[in-house]
C-alpha cells in the first residue's frame, strides 16, 4: 500500500489525476467481444475503441506490454501497449504507475494478436482509478471469512461470486413476475413498527425521538398486508427485509428477505398452488427443476406431497400420537429419541418440536406439512373439519422449512383471544410472543374477507437452488466486528 500511495502521489505531481471524474469510454468489453467474436488471428479491424476496466494481469516486457482488463461482469479483454504506438513517456508511465487492481482507460485499434487473442492496440492510456490495496491471490489469500466480510473483493476475483448474485437476482425477478402475472399488487409496508407482530420472534428494539416512543423493526410483513386486504386490495404481496434478534448459524441470519402474499377468498390450498407456481418460476429462471443436494436429487415437477403432522410423527416414532396425547406421554417419547425439550412445554409445543427434530429433516422432496395444533400459528384459522387443528402448512424441501401458508384467521373475536394470550405470555417474559395490536384488531372488526396467505424465505430458496450457505446467499450478511 505504501508503494501504491507513492504512485498516486507521482500521478498528482505530474498533473494527472488518480481518480478522474470520468473517462470517454466508447465501448464495453462485452460489446467488443460480441462484435469481433470471429476475428481471425493476426487481423486488424480499423475500428478505434476506448475502453475502461480493471487490470487483472500485466506483463511488461521491453518495448511491448500486455495487460488483461476485466469488466464488472467478469468479461476480459487483452490490451497491448507498444513503444511505437504510445511513445516512450506513456510506456514508461504505464510500467511505473499501473498495478493489478487499477482501473485504466485505454484507447486504440481493435485487433487480434498473432496467437488469435482479441486485443486493443493502444495509442493512449490514462488512470481511471488507482487501487491502493493489492488484490488477493485467489487460492492463497481469499479465505471464506474474507470472502464474506469483504464481498467486494470476492466479486472482483471470483466468477462464482458474481454468478451467485445474478442467480439470486433472477430468482427474485421470477417471483415478482409470476405474482404480477397473477394480478397481485406489490406493496411497501412499514419496517419501523410500534408493535411487533405477525410471527413468534424476538424483535430488535429502537427508539423514535420525534414521538419519544419505543419502536421495533418488523419481524414479519403480515399484519399490514392484511390491513390492505381489509381495505379492498384483494391480492397483495411484498418482498422485503425482516429483522429477528435471534441466533446466527448456517441457515439463520438476523436480517433476511421474505415474500409474503395474501389473497382474498383464498385458503391454504389455493396458496399452496400459488407457492408451487412461484417456486417453479424461480427454478426455471436459474435453469432446472432438478436440484442436486447432499441428500440426493430433488425433483420439483409433478404433485408435491401432503403430510399431516400427527400421522407423520406417529409413523416416525412407532406410536399413535393424536391431539389428545398428553404432555407426559410426549416427554417420554422425546426421552426415548434423545430429543432435548423444555419441561415447561405443553403437549402442542412438544408435538411441534418432536416433528421438527425427527420428521422434518427426512423430508427431502417438496412436502406440505399440514394439520398443525393451534399454538403453532396464532394467526391461522381453526380447521373447517378438525376442531383441534388449524388450517396451516409448512413447505419442507431438502429437510428445511422453506415457506408457510394459512387459511387466515379473520374472526376478530378469536383473533383478540389469541393475541391476548400471546401478550400475556410476553408480559410473563416470553421474548418471542406477539404484543396485542389494537389497530390490527380494529381493521379486522371492519370485516376482513376470507383469505389465504403465504410466506416464502427468499434466502432459503436461493440456498436450495445454488447450494450455498446463508452467508453466501445474502450478498452482505451481518458479521461480528473485526
Automatic annotation (TrEMBL):
Cofactor note: Binds 3 Mg(2+) ions per subunit.
PROSITE patterns per UniProt: AA_TRNA_LIGASE_II
Compartments in which it is found: Cytoplasm
InterPro entries, A to Z: Aa-tRNA-synt_II, aa-tRNA-synth_II, aa-tRNA-synth_II/BPL/LPL, Lys-tRNA-ligase_II, Lys-tRNA-ligase_II_N, Lys-tRNA-synth_II_C, NA-bd_OB-fold, NA-bd_OB_tRNA
UniProtKB keywords: Aminoacyl-tRNA synthetase, ATP-binding, Cytoplasm, Ligase, Magnesium, Metal-binding, Nucleotide-binding, Protein biosynthesis
Primary residence: cytoplasm
UniProt-annotated binding residues for Mg(2+) 1: 394, 401
Cofactors: Mg(2+)
UniProt cross-references to Gene3D superfamilies, sorted A to Z: Bira Bifunctional Protein, Domain 2 (3.30.930.10), Nucleic acid-binding proteins (2.40.50.140)
GO molecular function, one term: lysine-tRNA ligase activity
Residue ranges constituting the Aminoacyl-transfer RNA synthetases class-II family profile domain according to the UniProt record: 168-481
Enzyme class: ligase
Binding site for Mg(2+) 2: 401
Family membership noted in the UniProt record: Belongs to the class-II aminoacyl-tRNA synthetase family.
Name of the featured protein: Lysine--tRNA ligase
Upper classification of the organism: Bacteria, Bacillati, Actinomycetota, Actinomycetes, Micrococcales
Encoding gene per record: lysS
Amino acid at each position: 500500500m505504501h508503494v501504491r500511495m507513492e504512485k498516486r502521489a507521482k500521478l498528482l505531481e505530474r498533473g494527472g489525476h488518480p481518480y478522474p471524474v470520468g473517462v470517454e469510454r466508447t465501448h464495453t468489453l462485452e460489446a467488443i467481444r460480441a462484435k469481433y467474436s470471429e476475428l481471425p488471428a493476426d487481423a486488424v479491424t480499423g475500428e478505434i475503441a476506448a475502453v475502461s476496466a480493471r487490470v487483472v494481469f500485466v506483463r511488461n516486457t521491453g518495448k511491448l506490454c500486455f495487460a488483461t482488463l476485466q469488466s464488472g461482469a467478469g468479461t476480459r479483454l487483452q490490451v497491448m501497449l507498444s513503444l511505437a504506438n504510445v511513445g516512450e513517456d506513456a510506456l514508461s508511465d504505464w510500467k511505473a504507475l499501473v498495478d493489478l487492481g487499477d482501473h485504466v482507460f485505454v484507447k486504440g485499434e481493435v485487433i487480434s494478436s498473432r496467437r488469435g487473442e482479441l486485443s486493443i492496440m493502444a495509442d493512449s492510456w490514462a488512470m481511471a482509478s488507482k487501487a491502493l490495496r493489492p488484490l488477493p491471490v485467489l487460492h492463497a489469500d481469499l479465505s471464506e471469512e474474507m470472502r464474506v466480510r469483504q464481498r467486494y473483493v470476492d466479486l472482483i476475483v471470483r466468477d462464482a461470486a458474481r454468478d451467485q448474485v445474478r442467480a439470486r437476482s433472477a430468482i427474485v425477478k421470477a417471483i415478482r413476475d409470476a405474482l404480477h402475472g397473477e394480478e397481485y399488487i406489490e406493496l411497501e409496508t412499514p419496517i419501523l413498527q410500534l408493535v411487533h407482530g405477525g410471527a413468534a420472534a424476538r424483535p430488535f428494539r429502537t427508539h423514535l425521538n420525534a414521538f419519544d416512543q419505543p419502536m421495533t423493526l418488523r419481524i414479519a410483513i403480515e399484519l399490514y398486508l392484511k390491513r390492505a386486504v381489509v381495505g379492498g386490495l384483494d391480492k397483495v404481496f411484498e418482498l422485503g427485509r425482516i429483522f429477528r434478534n435471534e441466533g446466527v448459524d448456517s441457515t439463520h441470519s438476523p436480517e433476511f428477505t421474505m415474500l409474503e402474499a395474501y389473497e382474498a377468498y383464498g385458503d391454504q390450498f389455493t396458496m399452496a398452488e400459488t407457492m408451487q407456481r412461484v417456486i417453479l418460476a424461480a427454478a426455471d429462471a436459474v435453469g432446472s427443476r432438478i436440484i442436486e443436494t447432499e441428500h440426493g436429487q430433488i425433483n420439483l415437477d409433478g404433485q408435491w406431497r401432503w403430510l399431516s403432522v400427527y400421522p407423520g410423527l406417529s409413523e416416525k416414532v412407532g406410536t399413535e400420537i393424536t391431539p389428545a396425547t398428553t404432555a407426559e406421554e410426549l416427554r417420554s417419547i422425546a426421552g426415548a429419541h434423545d430429543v432435548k425439550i423444555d419441561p415447561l412445554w405443553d403437549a402442542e409445543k412438544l408435538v411441534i418440536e418432536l416433528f421438527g427434530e425427527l420428521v422434518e429433516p427426512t423430508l427431502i422432496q417438496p412436502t406440505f406439512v399440514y394439520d398443525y395444533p393451534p399454538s403453532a400459528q396464532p394467526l391461522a384459522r381453526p380447521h373447517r373439519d378438525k376442531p383441534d387443528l388449524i388450517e396451516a402448512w409448512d413447505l419442507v424441501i431438502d429437510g428445511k422449512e422453506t415457506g408457510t401458508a394459512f387459511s387466515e384467521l379473520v374472526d376478530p373475536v378469536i383473533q383478540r383471544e389469541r393475541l391476548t394470550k400471546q401478550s400475556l405470555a410476553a408480559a410473563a417474559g416470553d421474548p418471542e410472543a406477539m404484543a396485542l395490536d389494537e389497530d390490527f384488531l380494529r381493521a379486522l372488526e371492519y370485516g376482513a374477507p376470507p383469505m389465504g396467505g403465504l410466506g416464502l424465505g427468499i434466502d432459503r430458496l436461493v440456498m436450495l437452488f445454488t447450494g450455498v450457505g446463508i452467508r453466501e446467499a445474502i450478498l452482505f450478511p451481518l458479521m461480528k466486528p473485526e
